[in-house]
Design brief:
By secondary structure, the protein is α/β, with parallel strands linked by helices. It is built from 9 helices and 7 strands; from the N terminus they run ββαααβαβαβααβαβα. It folds into 3 domains: about 45 residues, no CATH class; about 60 residues, no CATH class; about 110 residues, Rhodanese-like domain (Oxidized Rhodanese, domain 1). Strand 4, helix 5 and strand 5 form a beta-alpha-beta unit.
Length: about 250
């Protein structure tokens, strides 16, 4: 190793079976006295929360798993110098995924399901145990008009931490949700613009913190408007409640 070299070694392992094992052994022979070399290692199984997020965007479990696994290998696949090897490797990954038929990689866990409700379902607007939440990419749409009784949850300023690039923590989430009159036992129906794009983000954060009954309104905001349904600028005034986040 040359003098004044600054190096970094990393090992990343994805376990695709309960019997799989990965041992990281960073080894470097150094024959110089003015060098620096750091190292890091990560080992884990396919993340259930990543799978759930992709499934909430409409992918099947099998498609979600294949996308995550292929993404993990992507940086290696793109470096293959032999023509056709990339395509063959991706094909083998796809074939292996199809052979599994959507069965979970590694540990057997159940992904929480999110149901959908028909656009304009009267029960969602009149039942005290239901809260409708609008979450949009265009943060001004709610003020222009929203589904009667809907609560605004701003993905940009409320669910994202305003200092670091992360979601708000469990305590901040519980305080936010409780202040909007949403309790742990409420059924929450999410909808928004861009085909429920940001609404699915919001649903994912609620599920991440353990809210049990989360649903998506079929067709979202645009379908509601296209069908000539009522919009209002009146904000609901639900009393604040104590909300307990279930996960950190």
């Amino acid at each position: 190793m040359a003098q004044q070299t600054s190096a970094y070694q990393s090992t990343h392992s994805l376990l695709l079976s309960d019997k799989a094992r990965a041992d990281a052994l960073p080894i470097l022979e150094i024959e110089a006295d003015d060098v620096r070399c750091k190292h890091g290692s990560t080992t884990g199984m396919v993340d259930d929360e990543q799978i759930f997020y992709l499934m909430s965007r409409g992918l099947s479990r099998q498609e979600a798993q294949r996308m995550i696994v292929q993404g993990f290998f992507e940086t290696v696949i793109t470096e293959f110098p032999v023509e056709g090897v990339q395509e063959k490797f991706v094909w083998r990954l796809k074939a292996a995924s199809e052979a599994r038929g959507g069965r979970a990689y590694g540990r057997s866990t159940s992904i929480p399901k999110c149901s959908s409700v028909p656009t304009g379902s009267q029960s969602t607007r009149t039942t005290p145990t239901v809260r409708i939440v609008e979450s949009d990419e265009d943060v001004l749409l709610y003020e222009v008009g929203h589904v009667p009784g809907a609560i605004k949850v701003d993905w940009h300023s409320e669910l994202q931490h305003q200092v670091v690039r992360d979601y708000i923590d469990k305590e901040a989430f519980a305080k936010l949700v409780g202040s909007k009159g949403i309790g742990n036992n409420h059924t929450i129906v999410f909808y928004g613009d861009r085909n429920n794009w940001w609404a699915c983000y919001a649903l994912w954060v609620f599920k991440m913190y353990g809210h049990q009954d989360c649903r998506i309104m079929n067709g979202g905001r645009q379908k509601w408007i296209d069908e000539g349904r009522t919009l209002t600028q009146e904000r609901p005034n639900y009393p604040a409640v104590t909300y307990a986040g279930q996960r950190s």
